[in-house]
Amino acid sequence: MIHSMRFGRRLCVVAVLLASTQMAFAQDAFDAPAMFTGKVGVSGADRSPIYPGTTATVSGEGFAVGQTVTVERGDTVLVDAIKADGEGKFTATFDVPADAVIGVHPVIVKTDAPDSAEVIQVKVSPDLETFGEDKFDIVKSASLAGNLYQVAISEKNGTIFATSAVGRPPVKESTLYKLDAETLEVLAEATPEIADERGGRYAVYGVAVDDTHGNVWVTNSRQNTVAVYAQDDLALVKQFADGAANHARDVVVDHTRGRAYVSTSTDGIEVFDTGTLELIDTIEVPSKQRGQRFFTTSLALDEDAAILYTPSLTTPETAFINVETGEVTVSPLTATDRAIGVDVSEDGSRIFYVSQGGDDLVITDAEGTVLSDTPIGVQPLNVVYDDADGLVFVVNRGSDSLAVTDVNGEMVANLRVGPQPNFVEETEDGAIYVVNKRREGNDDSNTIWRLDLK
Fold first, then answer.
1. How many helices and strands in the chain, by DSSP H and E?
2. What ranges do the domains of the chain cover?
3. Are the beta carbons of 278 and 229 closer than 8 angstroms?
């Protein structure tokens, strides 16, 4: 009896201690919250992309001196309790598993004293070998000025047109080039007009050719507008007023209907008459995602079917626009992450998307069923399908590459095409044109490449 009473007292003491510990834990776990004030970035060696089986570097700044920082992916600790230095900074490394899945990963950055947390996105990219250069005849232009953005082709006149611009507003250096489509010799060039009192110009970015009226359409993204130049001598035909097309990016010309369609980020598609050179309509592209806005970027036009295709950069969606009726169909596009490039086969049976988040090429049928999903390179920007040869071409800005697949997404070549390739376009007979940008010390900077399958 006495023994039992002593055991009961001990049990009570243990229970009290356990309860006290739990209360203390609860108080520690829910102390005064703090704002996450740091800034954290993750990259590969020398700020390169992160590949499976390599070492990644984590850099942070803006933390309290001596603050403890821990970096985790799920249940795995990547960086364990490193302290910020006297300037509130830290640097650490971790190994990326060889079997790491390609794509964007949520990584948690936690701090102690004071406690705070932030989720950052870390992208693991595909590391692809180059091969297949012997399958193509390749011609390169001389190095041009500025930073090349896009290229458009005049099938009728055997010429191509390329846009170039440098820097942030006020952009004072920009050029529209006209080149021979075969030799890539520069035939003419034009400097856009001054746009403001700071000396900024109506810099040119997107470009499309109107062979019916002999004009070239360009987008002036910085002034939220567009302009039209003459093909023969690049004389300015019309500069539209600032604000005519919000953050105008891509432009495509519909020769059948005499229209130019311009993507304007979250403002849909602006429609211009290529004969009268007037803005005649705005096609709104609503998002089906609650509280979100559809962000138009690249455009692909099937003139025969009267369908304009555009994916959303910020929502997992794609839009099909009937340019005859104005009807807009928005469909899910969940296989990609931040889709930015699009093209369609001539018969409309295959649609090709490239994404910034997934570093992949996704091929769907007309109903949206995913047929293939191929790791394609780092930071793909643009895609074209060459119906003549049945090949898909993707420019990857982050890996300086032009990836080539068949219609089923199987890689057939992966080529180096100079620094930061930005755009790819194709002719009806299968010639491929690529433009790239400038990188200090690279002899292939700001060049236009023509590739023909042997």
1. 1, 35
2. 39-124, 133-453
3. no
